Amino acid sequence: MVNRRSTGLAALVLTGMVLTAGCSSSGSSGAASTGPGGSAAPAGTLTIGSSAAPPSLDPTSSPSAAIDEVLDYNVYQHLVQLSPNGQVVPVLASGYAWSADRKTITFTIRQGVKFSNGDPLTAADVVYSIKRVVAPKSGYPYASLMGTLTSVKETSPTTVAVTLSQPDQEWLYQLAAYSNGVILDPGAVSKIATGPVGTGPYEYKSQVTNYSATLAANPDYWGSAPGFATVIFRYFTDPTAEDSALLSGQIQVIDDLQNPADAAQFENNPSFEIVHGPTDGKIQLTLNNASGPLKNVLVRQAISDAINRQAILATVGGGFGTVIGSDTVPGDPWYSSSYAQAYPYNPAKARQLLTQAGYPNGLRLTLTLPQPYAYATQAGPLVDAYLKSVGINVTDKVVAWPLWLSQVFEGKDFDMTIIDHVEARDVANYATPGYYWNFAGTSRVAALLNAGNAAPTQAGQVAEYTDALKMITADAVNVWLYNPDVITVAKTGMKGLPTSGHSESFNLEYATTGTVPASATAQGFSS
Amino acid sequence: MRWLLPVTRRLGILAASLLAASLLVFAILAALPGSPAQVILGTQATPQSVAQLTRQLGLNKPLPAQYLDWAGGLLAGHLGNSYISSQPISGELGPAVAVTGPLILGAIFVSVLIAFPLGMASAIRSDKPSGTAITAIGQLGIAIPTFVVGLLLTKAFALMTHLLPATGFPGWQAGPGALRYLVLPAIALGIAEGAILLRFVRATVAEVLRSDYYRTARAKGLRPMRALWRHGTRNILIPLITVLGLEIGGLIVGAIVVENVFVLPGVGSLLLYSVSDRDLLVVQDIVMLVVAVVLVLNFLVDVSYRFLDPRVGGERA
Q: Which of B28, B37, B48 shows the shortest CA–CA distance to B84?
């Protein structure tokens, strides 16, 4: 029963609890003691804020990038991996060589590597891991990329030979970028969904679903010791809560700031640093090439001319990114900034094209926006305004993500939509008949891309891919808006963070509060 | 044993309500567009992979079969496995309840702490400015949305003064210090609730003040608070408990907002994630849990009247 006296007592107790408990600091980040240029014992805890929690712990059965962010390159490693600069670098392979006919690649497996459970890495483990991708019912989300694999075998205790049915320029890149390349311990695979075991600098410790994932330094790591004893990923759906956590010291790094506009509050603050670099994403206005007026290439070209992509990047992306004009981003071997010039902002030309197409009085279209993506819901009204100014009246439709998947992606029931295609080098979507934007020229693009992948030199591949890109740009299949940067905000003094989003992993191999080796900064880790 | 029949009737109503709720929840979620298989595979989905995963998850079975699988499992105590992570749901729900349970208890504690003394004071001083002031502040408490209160508390106590943590929850394995992380959320949730309860307390106390037995007690020489305490308490408690029982549902819904603002891994967050991921079994299990909690609590409130109010003895229609 509450009477005046016990009310006062309760208030006193509550205040006392708050005051005494409030004395300890929250969110420690330890400093690793370093000697000049030497690797130090891992110490302290690094807490990283991120926006999407991993739905499961198995990258070999789910395409979710949130799994790769935590586990890829940090716990699991590949034979070759992507550096932040987008280069393929050898990791578990100490070297590799293509045969003369470019159909067989022989990897030399690095010696002295152990999984975090103590098992040694053997050539047999590599063969097992690659075979697992193409096994029937394997469930690997990118298994189709291994379609040209004919055999993989151990040619000596330290070498593995992989044979393809034809030369494939993309094969090594894909092994680095996707979960196809993850090297597994056959003895630990039965627990792959609850206890991932890999060769990386960190080992998996625990997780709280949708809330946090914890890694610990791998004491048997074959490379230089990782910078922290513990790494915790904390997940925030609310960007404001994430910013507060960084400002109050509960986390030391935000990986992939969701609202580019939030960067402003950290920009002039000496306690924080902003690191940003390109991703493989293409934020685009997808046009349903089979829907009504959009069947006409002139209408699609008119829409391309009507939109000021630079302004959208400045407003929605905060200027963090690059305007693009086709399905390619800076970092692709076939990238050229000329594609962005194909449809410069020209509303007069847009109106002219519409009249030519038979719509002198304009037309009506719907724009479907996926609700959780701020870039889409912010860019939508801007796109509407640009199109309105050339006579196209647009009605917006905001849908939750599962509905976007079922209505737009599977059902193809849409006119236009705004979405970020995040997969790297995914020009092959334009070669897939029935892919949701209903492009009519898929067989021509498929022929070009196949020729490109089978080309004996990269120059040959680039030539074929360029032809394909020129075709889809001329056809204005979609309106490519911009390639967004990944924005990382870190407490000043945090170094060795990846400076780009080219791989889906948040690569912590060199993350430290001490010094970062020159070889790492050359690869694109922050100093 | 006079109470046996009415209590048994109430239990029967409870069971029937739970059955009806389960059918309703299942039907609504089954009608929701967007399949779990599609969400799991995302933009990497092909028609074949979606079909394969749908079969694997058992979602191609006819709806009545799926309902019976689920409901039967619940009765046997099995919550099923999450579609997204394939791990047992009880493993995810257990720790979540361990966060939300204490949060709601804390919120009830805060709300009673606010409502009881302030409600009484404002009723006793209803003709004075201080009474009106308390009423006005109470209005504010109802009007300001919970998440705004949460953000204001975070700014004041976590960002500007570092007294309490801004977000998160380290888990109970971190020891009783983990309570600090629930202080601000419980206050945010409790303020709105407290403001609502305050009005009920004030109305009930006002009624007691007008009653004969109170006037008699005062005539006998007792001071106002003592008279209220001695003779009015039970009459104040009954409506209060009734309202609390009805408000539990509101508290649980409010917890969803608070858990989002303070990033707590509780039942509210789990529910939000599961809805947007179409992890339907988790949503069904959580909704049934909430329904069961509300129904059982109201059942207990009903039964408690017999002990609090001796006039309630015969059969209630």
A: B37
Residues A226/A32, Cβ–Cβ less than 8 Å: no
Q: How far is B218 from chain A (nearest CA, A)?
A: 18
> Rounded CA gap, A203 and B6, in Å?
59
Q: Write the pLDDT tens digit of every residue in A420-456.
A: 998 899 999 999 999 999 999 999 999 999 999 999 8
Three-class SS of A230-270 = EEEEEECCCHHHHHHHHHCCCCCEECCCCCHHHHHHHHCCC
How far is residue A468's CA from residue A451's CA, in Å, rounded to a whole number? 11
Of B33, B163, B165, the CB nearest to A406: B33
For residue A459, the surrounding DSSP H or E stretch is helix A458-474
CA distance B182 to B312: 39
Q: What one-character DSSP code corresponds to residue A189?
A: G
Q: Please give the radius of gyration of chain B, using alpha carbons only, rounded to the nearest integer.
A: 24
| Contact yes or no for B117 and A7 at CB 8 A | yes
Query: Is the CB of residue A164 less than 8 Å from the CB of residue A194?
Result: no
* Residue A250 touches partner B, C-beta closer than 8 Å: yes
Give me the residues paired with residue A525 across strands: A498
Length of chain B: 317
Q: What is the pLDDT of residues A249-305, one digit of tens each?
A: 889 999 999 899 999 999 989 999 999 999 999 999 999 999 999 999 999 999 999
Sign of CA dihedral B54, B58, B63, B66: negative
Backbone φ and ψ for A22, nearest 5 degrees, come out as -75, -5
In this prediction the ipTM stands at 0.76
- Asked if the C-beta of A389 comes within 8 angstroms of chain B's C-beta atoms, the answer is no
Enumerate the residues of chain B whose CB falls inside 8 A of the CB of residue A407. Answer: 33
Mutate to test the interface with B, among A13, A405, A412 (most CBs of B within 10 A): A405
**Bigger pLDDT: A519 vs B137:** A519
Kindly report, residue by residue over B198-221, the tens digit of the pLDDT.
888 888 888 888 888 888 888 888
Contact A141 B87 (CB under 8 A): no
Chain B residues lying within 8 Å of A25, measured CB to CB: 162
Is the pTM higher than 0.90? The answer reads: no
